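INFO  loader      accepted 1 record
INFO  loader      residues=434
INFO  predictor   begin
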Amino acid sequence: MDQANKILSIGKSINFLHHVCKNNEPIKGRSEDKEEEVTDRYRDTEMLLDQDLDGSFQQVIDAVYQDTSKRLLHVLHQNFSFLEHLKAMRRYLLLGQGDFIQHLLDLLESELAKPANSLYLHNLTGVLETAIRATNAQFDDADILHRLDVRLLQISPGDTGWDVFSLDYHVDGPISTVFTPQCKLLYLRVFNFLWRAKRMDYVLNQVWRGQMANAKALKPIPELSPVLHQCHILAAQMIHFVQQMQYYINFEVMECSWDELCKKVTAAEDLDHIIAAHEVFLDTIIRRALLDQQSRPLLTQLRAIFDLIIQFQGTQETFFKSSLEELTLRASYEKQIAAKSEQGEWGLSQQEEEDERRRKVKFMREVIPTNRAQLKVLAKSYQDMVQKFLVSLTEHADDNLRLLAVRLDFNEVYKAKEPKLRSPMAFKKTKKVF
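INFO  predictor   done
INFO  writer      dumping tokens
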């Protein structure tokens, strides 16, 4: 750092301490014995115009810069708990507190399924407090938990609670110099993306549980086996996709960027270094999480894939509901036969048997083919969207995103279908111009 920048930094640090931190204590170290003689030499402002032939003036600047920066960072960390607030942003706004986020999803599932205009902020705040008390979040500092809050985004027609819900973290005082309103908006964008991805993981867990619970129950209806097979295959494809996206987001984006930020904050010499490191951290996440302008088409495709996952959940639930109703009717029919037999009667009447036969035929000819067709169309739409998403990834300038495409298509199923994925130029590294 050149001399002028250091002088500017000294002035900014002293002003920040006095006017923002309200700390007017003298900065220790500026009048040490070994520097006292050379410091006194420059108390006369006329001496500042002399040439600094022996570098003594630079030594004074370096010493004052180190002392003021050290004092400022000490006040920021000790008096205003900057690192604790930074870690809290990571845990809550970037979904780092796994048990808390999972429990919050469980509690909010029914509430967020409602239309967005029917949500009440005080109800959601109560759910948030319940999630805090039931998880390890309760052991956080009271000041941190007091700053954590619920925020509802602007409502658009057709929105549900999932589309407008967000967590917020209130900042004030000196730490707001790092967590500026612009940074808060970036945190909000990242939270919405991570929350949507986490919801997909949660939805597919429910889909899998539904399949496991109903697979055995529906065995008495062998005609359902092809449809159940379709559901299992499509769910497996979606689970693989979401798990790979979760791994990429959580480890290659979040953890790597967070580790780099911690190293820079620990090694920071002044507040400007911390601000710069934090901005780089957010910019890296925005870029690698497909939230920048260049990746907008990719984000649109990814959201379309997520919408298909939600649609698949609804389709499977409808299929299971109709299948379980059919199973109940067949069981009821068998119970009627058994009851009549116990009474010494000869089963059911011919009309009742004919009605049962017609109902079964209707189920076989209408319900099963309809569900199979819906799942087939859904599977085709999903595969087409994933294929398009993979092509866009291979054309991206970021190496990490191109490698993500390889993991998503690890067995080369989509590569066999799409010529663009087989092209030697597909994964060719983009030439960088410096």
